[in-house]
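Following up on my earlier thread - several people asked me to post the actual chain instead of describing it. Fair enough. Here it is, all 162 residues.
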Amino acid sequence: MTALRAALLAAAAATSLLPAAALANDSGATPAAHMRVDYDHSTIVHLERPAKTIVIGNPAIADALLIDDKTVSVLGRMFGNTNIIALDSSGAEVLDVRITVGAPESAQVTLYRGAQGQRNLACAPQCERNVTPGDPEMSGVVQDADKKTESAQKSAQLSGGK
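Reply from S.P.:
Thanks for posting it. Predicted structure:
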């Protein structure tokens, strides 16, 4: 890895976890922050203020779990872009972050096999099979994600009806 690439990655990592409130400019506007999460990896986001609810733009791309009122775990589920919004108990926005879920930047090999589709390998130090979006086996993973999303939505509806 070149020194320039290492510096760029470090700078991106340092800014990618900042909540939107920390990125406010002088005009008082709060632009949406942006973060990148590797597919099938989690990262932690620390909030400046307590949150009560997490809203996910597309739960098939990323998932978020409120660990406590100031800590959110974000999981990259499928390649793509979405957003996550955290709200406090009065419904005020605590965080609005755009999420890009992408392939890990190291030790990943993709073999394209024509009609058989692609095969992905995670290589560190030896290569092993890794099911990722685009693989023929991925349809089962997507169906599982859809079931989990539906279950979470039903659970939220039931808990809101108390």
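The helical segments are 3-16, 138-160. That should answer part of your original question.
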